[in-house]
Specification:
- Strand 3 (about 70-80) and strand 4 form a beta hairpin.
- Helix 4 (about 390-405) runs antiparallel to helix 5 (about 410-424).
- The chain is elongated and about 130 Å long.
- The termini are far apart.
- It has helices at about 5-35, 340-365, 370-375, 390-405, 410-424, and strands spanning about 45-50, 55-60, 70-80, 85-90, 95, 105-115, 115-120, 125-130, 140-150, 155-160, 170-180, 180-185, 190, 195-200, 215-220, 230-235, 245-255, 255-265, 275-280, 290-295, 295-300, 305-315, 330-335.
- With about 425 residues, it is α+β, with helices and mostly antiparallel strands.
Length: about 425
């Protein structure tokens, strides 16, 4: 019986697939037994060493009985705490930066690569115990700020709060580390219990041109009554930078447009690395605007019949991590309206109103004789001593009274003068 042609074609296709599978199986089989016969051993002498503030050196050695012929050996490193991290390396050492006040732990294993196959050993684990110290004695609320000075150096200012469980005699001491430089604070500010709560470095080893490097802050302490637990924190140098104020701000009017220009803050970064906030306040209407600007000049259509106050501040933009906004620049006024400040006019109106009120009250008191009622005249004191010349005195008193009544008469004045001569 003849076999159909299409059946022969199907059988031919199946035979080709079978041959391809057989070839692949033979290729894999030549490698698998060889790899299966190789045992992967973990590294030996795995150690963790604190090599600097908040820095750990991980070191290990290849297992001496590990077969290395025709194999590529790498190491799988896994940081367990304080911050989980996993990576692989060809080296037999690794340096990691991490806070250590709560300890540090890691594990490592051998990776054996042969062609597309990868074999793994068991894990080897090590840890660093937390430093001793009573609970709640370490500092809290640690914050730091850096500034770039005119001389292109970096200052550092840190503040913190004492731990709730720290005795009153606790003395805190701050250290900072930048790359390989470590320095202790010499300029502290104290609280009412004479405990250090602030530290200032006018000059540091921090490089203002570096991008996103870490600054390590370490604070330990001492007390007669308790062991003070140390505290560490890592800061990105650009994230805690207080950017300087934009310089040479100039604002003027051109027809109905407001034009403003300025220079970038003091910084080693180019002007493209900054962004700005433009604060415009209408002194008449009280309207406020804050505009985001990425250049060092600005044009805006305004109502020139009003008067405005203008301020500008800066921050990092694209070259590095954003820091703290700078302080606002000094206020600049622009516009034709002479009403400088509505608050000043309100105060002036209040002063005028107050003066008018007091004047009106004074007039009312004068008309109604309030002053004479509140402050009556002082009566003439009576003479309790007996006069040795009562008759002559009465005559003189009568004459004086008449003189006061008729002080226009010359004759009576002359008469009284003669009488006085006769009496005294």
């Amino acid at each position: 019986m003849a076999v159909p042609v299409y059946h022969l074609k199907i059988m031919d296709s199946m035979m080709r697939v079978f041959l391809i599978l057989l070839w692949t199986a033979n290729l894999v089989q030549r490698n698998v037994p060889q790899a299966a016969r190789v045992q992967v051993f973990p590294p030996v002498n795995f150690t963790l060493t604190v090599s600097a503030l908040a820095q750990v050196l991980l070191h290990w050695k290849p297992n001496p009985i590990q077969e290395q012929k025709n194999y590529t050996i790498r190491y799988d490193v896994k940081i367990l705490s304080p911050v989980p991290e996993e990576y692989d390396t060809k080296k037999t050492h690794s340096i990691r930066t991490a806070v250590l006040h709560n300890g540090f732990s890691a594990r490592i294993r051998t990776l054996l690569h042969h062609n597309d196959l990868q074999m793994r050993s068991d894990w080897v684990k090590e840890k660093i115990l937390p430093p001793p110290g009573a609970p709640e004695t370490s500092v809290t609320n640690l914050s730091c700020v850096t500034r770039i000075t005119i001389s292109n150096t970096v200052s550092l200012h840190c503040t913190w709060l004492p731990g709730q469980g720290a005795p009153e005699d606790t003395k805190y001491f701050l250290f900072y580390r930048y790359e390989m430089y470590t320095e202790e604070c010499q300029d502290y500010i104290k609280d009412k219990w004479n405990r250090n709560t602030e530290c200032r470095f006018s000059v540091t080893h921090i490089d203002p041109e570096e991008i996103d490097n870490l600054i390590v802050i370490h604070i330990n302490g001492s007390s007669k009554y308790a062991a003070i637990k140390p505290f560490q924190q890592l800061f990105n140098q650009n994230a805690i930078e207080k950017v300087n104020v934009p310089r040479n701000v100039t604002v003027f009017l051109e027809q109905n447009d407001l034009l403003a220009t300025w220079e970038k803050p003091i910084s080693p970064f180019p002007k493209e690395c900054f962004e700005y906030e433009f604060y415009l306040f209408n002194l008449m209407s009280g309207n406020k605007q804050i505009l985001k600007i990425s250049s060092t000049n600005f044009r805006l259509r305004i109502d020139v019949t009003n008067r405005y106050s203008i301020q500008i501040r800066a921050n990092h933009h694209i070259c590095c991590t954003r820091g703290f906004w700078s302080d606002w620049s000094e206020i600049i006024y622009v516009g034709e309206n002479k009403l400088e400040n509505p608050i000043a006019w309100i105060l002036a109106v209040l002063c005028v109103s107050t003066c008018c009120t007091f004047l009106l009250l004074a007039i009312i008191c004068k008309i109604n004789h309030v002053w004479s009622k509140l402050f009556p005249p002082i009566p003439t004191p009576s003479n309790k001593f007996r006069d040795p010349f009562p008759n002559d005195y009465e005559r003189a008193r009568t004459c004086t009274s008449e003189t006061e009544t008729e002080f226009g008469s010359f004759a009576e004045d002359l008469y009284c003068s003669t009488l006085d001569d006769s009496v005294f």
